[in-house]
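Re-run with default settings, no changes from the original entry. Doing this only to confirm the output is reproducible before filing.
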Amino acid sequence: MRKENVKIIFLLVLTLAACGKPLPKLEKMDMEAWKADRQGCRHDREKMIAPLSEQKDKLKGLSENDITRLLGRPDQNELWKRHQKFFYYFLSPAAACDPANTNPKKLSIRFNAMERAKDVEIEN
């Protein structure tokens, strides 16, 4: 009987963990235009910098998968020591579409070893 209780509790915990919270809504941002503006080449993301700056804290604590579902695939990613990972989304045209722009503005998201967004910054 005791083993069955442990199994039931384990299944309950597993079920509750699978029921995550919904993705945040980023106000005043056209997420379809965001996702379509790969590398920032269309300049659509540049128009969204102000609302993104105001709401970037909504991204903290989200998993890598949640960030990808919300913002689309990152334009670049980087893996550091201790399983830290960075996702970069270019806000102004990257070198791929504007070779003269060697330092494009970008959204940088650092994930910790638990794959949760730890730091969210807009870099120039």
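The two ends are 61 Å apart (CA to CA). The helical segments are 2-18, 31-36, 49-55, 64-71.
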